[in-house]
Amino acid sequence: MATKKTTYAVGIDLGTTYSCISYLTPQGQPQTLPNTEGELSTPSVVFIDGSETIVGTEALRNSVTHPEQVISHAKRFIGDPNKCWVIGGKVYNPVDVSSAIVRKLLDGAQEFLGVPVTRAVITVPAQFSEIQRQQTVEAGRKAGLTHVDIINEPVAAALCHVLSEGMWFAELANEQTIMVFDLGGGTFDLSLVKYNKNEVRVKASGGDLHLGGLDWNLALEKYICDQFASETGLDPRLDRESLQAVTLEVEQVKRALSVRPKASVMVQHAGRRKTYGLDRHRFEELTRQLVQRTQDITLGMLKANKLGWAHVDTVLVTGGASRMPMVRDMLKRVSGTTLNTSLSPDQSICHGAAYYAGMLLSGQSLEKSSLNKEATAKLSQMKQQSVNARGLGILVRDMESQRRVPHFLIPANSPLPIAFRQRFGTVVPNQKRVHLHIVESGTSDTDPPVELGACVVDDFPSRLPVGSPIEVTIRYDEQARVHVEARELVSGKSARTTIVRKENVTQGFTEEGASADLVSAEADVAAPKVRTAGPSQSGIQQPSVPPAARATKASTFVPHPSGKPAETPPSTPRKQPTPNRPAGPAKAAEQPRRAAAPPRVKMTIPLEEADRPIPLCNHCGEPLDTRGRCPACLPGATQRKSRPQAGTAASSQPRKTRKRPPGN
Ligand code: ADP
Ligand code: MG
User: Fold this and answer.
1) Is 623 in the pocket of ligand 1 (CB under 6 A)?
2) What are the tens digits of pLDDT across the range 447-477?
3) Which of 16, 214, 503, 511 has the highest CB neighbour number within 10 Å of its CB?
4) Is 127 touching ligand 1 by the criterion CB < 6 Å?
5) What DSSP line would sit under 212-265, residue for residue?
6) What is the pTM of this model?
7) CATH class of segment(s) 1-165+345-381
8) Which pLDDT belongs to residue 631?
9) Homologous superfamily of 168-341
């Protein structure tokens, strides 16, 4: 019996194109909950009508008649502080849009369950960055949830597979490697998941955050509009309403071609109407490149993990776009196995999230849970382990180029939780402070790293010699959230990160309420084993700079002699942040047609006097100005700064002409 105190295990799949919500019945079975219109899947589309916010199918319908008032695919922009839509003079950011979608789902759930849902698990692509995860949590909170947990989408799919097929009825093989191939509307997520008895563990995850069913639509749309334009001299893409109508038609024809060999599409524009027939073969030709990309990513992941298909026991296919026969055919061809398509492509992730919510709930006080004893007992046996999708590290200075380059301490795909400790040495005599810029790798090798925040330790004792040890500990918790600590070992001074992004904090999102979900070094519950690349704790001595580092890279810090330097990938020029260009009403409906740039994060550093992410002067340790000069030193300090110091890593390097000032 549901009382006000009952807590349900609720999972939300907050998708780019479609979202859904489900809960676990008292017996522990996932069930998708209908929205207030009775639909199991809700289009992730928001229509702003004056003071009213309408979400779902009605919003989608309005995308033709009122395209300038409709926002879709907001998930592609989550984490981008510069993205917003302006409708009716009001500004909406991706968190606002996502929270409206979550609210819509919660309303449906409340109608069904009879009580407000205050706690839920929301799914995110495995490759989501820290800020994208945080903003997803924030969207949930803004929608009225008081407790939000997140889970990677492929993990959710794998959980759904093992729990619905294995745990409850038949027994699965004791050990399995599952490939989760999730092709959704806007993202392609690929993961290798190890199932071992009661544990689900992600071994590797990858994919493409900007590849999904939408790209197949765009290919079709281009083909059809080009044809119409060449025959009539009129281009439907030039008219917002005509284009939106084509977009809806294209979605229908794409779906039809998944089940029929032929379909037709109608285009209306400028008083002309034409109908085109399209067969599956033509569709395949038009989108061959896209299928090839999914194939390359799939084979690339196996290769990167030194695995062959013989190591993969199950290929689990999910995501709405995986229904396209060309995608399944490719996977069957390259894998040489039959695919497991038993899961509902639309609901498996949502169901997996509900299972995860049940797992979390089963570890807590029984009286609050809606699950019966048997379900609680079974769910509490399950464990899940994730890996971090992105490398995590700090920026160090390359003395040769004077550019700051990422130095990754935790490589991508490390099992979570994980912590890594490494010692660095100061690079100038009498250095007063260190300023760590925490970065995570981009979605691909060519993407620049994304800055997450900073950690400053200052007021070092006077006359610290060059190479004085600074110990840096970076930790990822189970939900891929980041904690950083830096300690100057001579004085014992230390600092921990609190990554606060004021510009992203919304009304009602308070520190107190967020304690469970925001990055917080205080929430150091179960300390994971710390891998250390440095010397033993007792080995606090005045280190000299390692010859290895001298011969290669130097930095604001250099790795401590006995610390194994993590691999430093070649730096890539940083892209400029997208200028803050709020779309005016006329542009509001300009939906994302192409991949959005990875989000650039403006940092807000909580420590005093450390509010600018700038490099430090190698002479006095003070921050440089935006032109790379040290206000505390004489003019010309910028040039002298790059002069190798005794014992610094660049001392054996010939000085190179600087091509660019030290960047941020
Ligand atoms: P997301 O989680 O990214 O919102 P979904 O897993 O819900 O994505 O999948 C949505 C995508 O699946 C959309 O691009 C949609 O067009 C596509 N899709 C849904 N059904 C079919 C189908 N029968 N054939 C082809 N594509 C489909
Ligand atoms: Mg999805």
Assistant:
1) no
2) 778 887 777 877 888 888 877 888 888 887 7
3) 214
4) no
5) SHHHHHHHHHHHHHHHHHHHHS--GGGSHHHHHHHHHHHHHHHHHHHHSSEEEE
6) 0.66
7) alpha beta
8) 67
9) ATPase, nucleotide binding domain (3.30.420.40)
